[in-house]
Each structure stands twice: as C-alpha cells, then as structure tokens.
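REQUEST
  id: r-88c1
  op: predict_structure
  target: Diguanylate cyclase
  payload:
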Amino acid sequence: METESEPYVRLATLRQLHQVVGELNTARSLADTLQTVADGVIAGLGYELACVNLVRPDGDLVVAAFAGNAAAEALITGRVGSRPSWERRLSMGEDWDGLRFIPHTEGWVLLEDDVPQWYTEGPDPRFEDEWHPQDRLYAPMYSAGGTQELLGVISVDKPRNGRKPGAWGREALQMYASQAAIAISNARLRANMQRALVRLEREQQALRASEESFRQAFEYAPSGMAIAEMGGDQHGRLLRTNDALCRLLGRPASVMRRYSFADLVHPEDIGTLLRTSAEGGRAELRLGRRDGTYVWVSLRNSVVADTADGPRFLLTHVEDIEDRKRHELQLAHRASHDALTGLPNSAELRARLSARLCPRPHSVGPAAAAESLDAAYGRPPGGAESEAHGHAFRADGFDFEAVPGGGPYDHHVHTVAPDSEIDDGTKGLAVLFCDLDGFKSINDRFGHHTGDAVLIEVARRLTTGVRDGDTVARLGGDEFVVLADGLGAADAADLAVRLRNAIIPPIRVDGRAVRVGASFGIGWASCGMSVEEVLRSADQRMYIEKRSRSKVHRRAG
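RESPONSE
  id: r-88c1
  status: 200
  body:
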C-alpha cells in the first residue's frame, strides 16, 4: 500500500480515507451503509476484495456486503458463519493493534469451518512481507461506549501493492473499522427509528380506526350507552350518552351530563344500583324519564381506559326491559290474583297472612307489661318460667332470641289477638271471613254470567269499604276474606257491619236487579297459630253467625 519512506502516500491515503468515511454517513439505509463500508475499503484503503460480516440478533454473522469481485459476491453474500467459528478466528494468528492477521501457514486449519470464505492457490511468498492468497486479515467492529459489543467484522484481501500492510496501513484500516462501526450503529438506529415510526403510525391509524368504530358503535347502538367518571369527587357523573339513551329517558345529551345514574334511579332501586359492581356488574332497576315516569332497564357495566396508565371510565349498557318487566308483573299478578275479580287469591292471602305469623305465641296483658318493665331495667323478663322456655321478648314486642326449633325473629313484630270478652284496647290483625247468602240461587236462576257479575261487584264494594293497606281476597266460589290490621274487637265488629250493609243493596245485571246477603265471621291472627288455624277459626265463627241469623235476613234473589 505504501512504505514508511513515502509520507506523501500516507497523506494521499488519509485524504481518500476522509472521503470514504464521509460517504459512510450519506447512506440512507442500513443495507446501503454496509455496501458503502465494503466499497470504501476498495476505494480508500487499497484492497481488491472486501467483505462486511454483520452480527445477527442470534449472534451468528452473515455476509451482508461484498465488493471487488462479482463472482465471489454471488458465492458468499447472505451466507452465515456461526459465532463460535468467528470467535475462534478472532483469537488466532497475530494481533495487529486491534486487527487480527492469520497467515497462510496457520489458516489451513480454517478451510473446513462454516465461515463463508473465498481463497485461491498461490506460490509461497518470495519475500517476508509479500501477501499470500490464503492470508486473512480481519478488522472487528465494536460498538461505542464501555460495552464494546461486537457489531461485525470487515474481511480484506489482495492488497494492490501485493504486500502486507505496514503500520500506517494497519492504523488506517483500524480507523476505518471504527468509523464504519459508528456508521453502522447510526444506520441501525435510524432503521429502528423508522420502523418505530412506521409502527407508531400504524398503531395510531389502528387507534383512530378503533376510536371511530367505537364512536359509531356507541352513537348508533340501538340500545342506550353511557360513559361515566370513575373515582374522585365526580364519581358516576355521566360524561357521554348516546341518542338511544337520550330518547329512552326523554332528555337531551347536554342535560344528561348534569346527572349520574344515582340521580336518575328510582328511590326504591338506589340500593340495587349501589350494590352493582363496576366491572361486569348487572342490575335491573328503574330510571326516571323527563315526564316524571320511570322505565325499567337492565344495566351492564364494564371498565375502559384511555391508555394503559390513563384514567378509567365506566361504560354502561342500558337496555329497555319495560315490556318484559310488564309481562313478568302480569304473570306474577295472574299467579297471585283471582282472574275474575282481580283480588288476591287464596295463595296470596295465605302468603300475606303467613308473613305476619311466627311459631312462638305471644301473651299480652299485665304479665307481659311486667316482663317489659323487667327488660327495660336489665332484668331477665319472665323470671324462671321464661328461662325455662328458653325465650325472651323486648319491651317493644321485637324478638331478640332465636325460637327453639325455629328460626330467628330478630325484627319480627308479634301479632296478638285482643281478648274476645274484655275490650282492653289491644289492637290486632282481624280476619273477616265472608260468605255470600243466596248466591247459589242467583247462579241457578240467571246463569253463571250473572253470578260472575255479582262476584265482581261484591269484590268492588268490599275493596271500597276497607282502608288502604287492608287486604280483600277471594278464597274461591262466593267466599271472601278481609285482613285488617290495628283493630280492636269493637272496630272489627263495626267493619263487618259496614261491609255487610255495603253488599246488601241491589246489584243490576243486564237490566235486572239481584240481591245477595253476607255472613261474616271474625277471627284473629296470633303468633303461635298456623295460617290454616286462623282461617278455620274465622270460618267457624262465620258459620255460627250464619246459623244465628233468621232465613229472612239471608234471603236474596
């Protein structure tokens, strides 16, 4: 390449080196940079052949660029040499200040390894520094910084002057390898940045497409959709609602943003709403419309986030289930109410009566009052007798111990019966058993159509004659039962008289006036009695009352 006695050659080489190093930074891609590195060896360093071996992610080295011989380029470009084989080569031969030279006298052992190579036969050198065709010279390229990671290896062959490089030639090759390593690192960085930018752009496009898809799915969903805040002072506040939800509730989107679902839910359903979990929660409740009415809806919640670490929001799907609920209520009403009169049927009557009874009888009177005073002053109520029964009652009538053999009645208000002989002011649950007098003759004379009309009118008169909260039920046939709570013995008797007088007036059916009478038996519900015992007691009293009245008072038709 040059001799130490020719400094002008060194200067020329330095100029060429400066030029080819400058070209390294003009390449646009990693592949262009690698080829520029190989071409620079030929153009600036005086070698006829140059090969750039690049470290792959798996550690092996691939021939990434070749310059100087088209046939050799076609032969080995793209071929891979294993990392162990390369490490063996970089540890053999002579260390030339970072370069690795393997003379032909040692390199014959490498002919069978898997590193891609080219070689030609040639005579032995005629003088000491003559280049042999099987000599090998490698310039490792390392990353900048303290890690010194191997990036690749530049292989060179056939110096143009036929001699091994001197000190200056070695330094020039080492300098070039260092600059090539920087250029390759920069090219990789640019390639990674370009790939990252392309990936980011694709992700942004996908995100925009996803957001647009979500927007369209949200806005044009046939059922209601809402997005609400999660956490903080504004937890639950509606941020966004779709057209379907606005139409369902009769409120514009701008107004909906003033509310949360807690503001819109029916007061009886607020507990259901609060118990509904944010993630995957479901609930059926009523939401208020603008006109003051309520609509049954099914809520389904899920949690969404803007980004991986961004704020979380509550996405709620609101489905109108008004028709289904109405149908369910109709079915439930049919199951618990009489089809003809619309009154609660026998099963519903028994359910309501059973809810007021417990297995434990409750006594009233002076003894119970004394027990209440004992309880108020912290003494065991009832003394030894009460302890023997294993049960006690609070002064307000609420059970605070479990009934032996039964269940707990922690919040049960005991139902008591007034004294039938002495009106001591005790109020209880009156059970009025009503049986119509003369109804069978109307059915026989005028047919079932007239009989049904009579039953409907009697049911209406009974319902009109009782208080809100009282129960009028039809047991079947011409038998009715009235449950009236909070009555004394005299109150119940007065109620029976009023209801009997309400039934007696003529009933007009198809232009014909018919009359029925009514017999009432008054029974009392009391804890310790079963439902059947209560109804049987009232029924028996009704028959006693019916037999005690003359037939003229029971005649109808």
